[in-house]
Amino acid sequence: MGSQTKVVVCGGGNAAHVLVPAIKEAGGTWVAVLATFGDESQRIANGVAQGGIIAAYRDHHYRGVPDLVTSSPSEAIPSADVVIVSVPAFAHAQVVESIAPYLKCGAFLGAMPSRSGFEFYATNKHLRDRDITLFGFQTLPWACRVADYGRLVNVLGRKNIVSMGAFPTSKTAGVAQVLASITGLRIRPANSMLSISLGNVGQIIHPGIMYGFFHGREDLDYDSDSVPLFYQSVNRETSMILDLMSREILAVARLIEQKHGVNLGDVIGLKQWLLDSYGDQIRDKTDIQTCFATNSAYEGIKAPVIGEGNKFRPDFKSRYLTEDVPYGLVVTRGVAAICGIETPVIDRVIDTCSHWMGVQYLIGGKPCGRDVSGTRHPVVYGIRDIDRLIATSV
Ligand code: NAI
Description:
four-stranded mixed beta sheet; 15 helices; 14 strands; about 40% helix; binds 1,4-dihydronicotinamide adenine dinucleotide
């Protein structure tokens, strides 16, 4: 792939809005937006017609005009060399289903971010026989919110570096190089997609903070001034929960390394991830709590609440739960079960968050709940042992 590389960004949310100007700023690669959801493609086209999408980061503004905006996979996908799916994980299946028939042989298809278990899903989808290389980003490189649809997105924070895994793993370095040149991002090639799945920190941060803030305080009302800052209000108690969750995940990774010889050295602890991702945007690097409280990239972001006027309650339908539990923690819990490792803190968080969401994924840690098929727990894809897990994601 070279200067003629064609990229399709799938999605019409915050992330898609940043990707287009980022790609144009990085080198002007041909880029299409494929927005299949509702009337988004028309709305983006209307906005773009007024001069392109502007990403605003501090005092730096960059603008990108996509070469095509469409809602039709058959129009955008057949010529695409690289397809970046940038929607919440609960929409991955719908988007990948719609584009899979049109992917050309040898294309790169991936998710930014992939959250956990994207590879279980995607390798099951008969993409291998067309030599499709999968990739997954461990996180979204930006904290961002659309301010004017199709026209302006505010970038609140930017990570220094992002990890990316690929499948088959032999393609990782090449895919990382192509994606870095297309997007201008600093990309750290991960050892495997399993590294990305276990190293998905959204699964720790989002459900963990929700649990820390609201467990036992579900019925508290907030007025508009007292809604806590989501990241910067992390207290000692919550940071300890996050730390324990992170340690449980590290224990899974280390066991797979030791017993099965898979290199998962790039699955790192939460504090290290915060330092690597945000560097000098963190004022006090002492511990997890201070890394959240003094991180300028997190400034002003409030906990998700619903309500009106002056009465708000926690929003238990927020994607901090609906995405990061079924496409994060539940996946990791499944990998831990395959390894025979207990994860008591993660279990507690999953159970509480499931109760809040009105779903049942696990019973006593086992994937027997009525809603488990709506997750990416390994058993959903017939992955029940370590050999199958490794064959699917390493
Ligand atoms: P968003 O909430 O803006 O994305 C919503 C978009 O997803 C919709 O506009 C639509 O285009 C698409 N979508 C939703 N349901 C769909 C469906 N059923 N079928 C097809 N498309 C559908 O999400 P955002 O903010 O762009 O985030 C994308 C990913 O990045 C998520 O995984 C999120 O957790 C992650 N992320 C976002 C951050 C941010 O600051 N925006 C920060 C860190 C991670």
